[in-house]
UniProtKB/TrEMBL annotation:
Domain of life, per lineage: Eukaryota
Gene3D superfamilies in UniProt: 3.60.21.10
Source organism of the structure: Aspergillus nomiae NRRL (strain ATCC 15546 / NRRL 13137 / CBS 260.88 / M93)
Xref: InterPro entries: Metallo-depent_PP-like (IPR029052), UPF0046_metallophosphoest (IPR051693)
Entry protein name: Ser/Thr protein phosphatase family protein
Region (Disordered): 40-60
Length: 269
């Protein structure tokens, strides 16, 4: 599907359900989940070392995980414009001369033993003020500046991250601090399916302005469209605002009915 998409560049970031792309997780527990679970939408694992018989137990094959990742990083994928993003910063130049810097991360706070997880109290996104012994130092913190687009699997705390029922915000507080510090033009994520949508945040006040899309137009265009370019009625004020998009295609019931987002955005040249 991605190969056939008529786009010059297609950026891919993994997430908690991509268990075969997280090598450490897959070799530790993910291969049990992959082989023996019958319901991939269930919240918690139904198989692990504690409930898989000895005759069924088999260590995860690291080479198979690497073969799967190679599908995303192969020459064929690169020639099709596909770029699989590991956690960290990458820079791109488009054919029209536009240049932009992306910070990507597949990691989300631990939830029901899924992949690419970290303890909610662990800060993966901000460099520590102290490097004393015992202080966690994130391998790929978000830079202070220079990031145009952030592409993470999960949302920052308080932005398009509310779950059904309790309406509690379940995004990452550390990620929010990082995005507030970096102030990118655009931050795209998913993970919380029921919080699908887009909003603009003005950093001086933290006010949020939800993007409203006409349903009939969205159906006709087969996408939810917003224009924050310099030619729009309300251009994005770079450094003062960030456009946040929860681009979850599936609903909380895993029905793929949410329209993909199309954003018109000014990029550096």
């Amino acid at each position: 599907m991605l190969k056939e998409a008529p786009a010059e560049l297609k950026l891919v970031v993994a997430g908690n359900h991509d268990i075969t792309l997280d090598e450490e997780y897959y070799t530790r527990i993910g291969h049990y989940r992959h082989r023996y679970r019958t319901d991939h939408t269930a919240a918690s694992a139904t198989a692990g070392k504690e409930n898989v018989g000895a005759s069924d137990e088999e260590e995860g094959r690291v080479e198979s995980v690497r073969e799967i990742k190679a599908l995303w990083t192969s020459e064929e994928a690169v020639n099709a414009g596909i770029r699989y993003l590991e956690e960290g910063v990458q820079r791109f130049t488009l054919g029209n001369g536009a240049r932009f810097t992306v910070y990507a991360s597949p990691y989300t706070p631990e939830f029901c033993q899924w992949a690419f997880a970290y303890d909610r109290g662990t800060d993966r996104f901000n460099a520590p003020r102290s490097t004393a012994e015992g202080v966690f130092v994130p391998p790929n913190p978000v830079p202070d500046d220079g990031v145009d687009i952030m592409l993470t699997h999960g949302p920052p705390y308080g932005i398009l991250d509310q779950v059904v029922g309790s309406h509690a915000s379940v995004g990452c507080e550390h990620l929010f601090r990082a995005v507030e510090r970096a102030k990118p033009r655009l931050h795209v994520f998913g993970h919380i399916h029921e919080a699908y949508g887009a909003t603009r945040v003005e950093w001086s006040t933290r006010n949020q302005s939800m993007i409203q899309c006409d349903k009939e137009t969205t159906l006709e265009d087969r996408c939810a469209y917003t224009d924050v370019s310099g030619e729009s009625k309300s251009p994005l004020r770079v450094g003062d605002e960030t456009l946040f998009v929860n681009a979850s295609v599936v609903t909380v019931q895993y029905q793929a009915v949410n329209a993909p987002w199309l954003v018109d955005l000014e990029l550096p040249s």
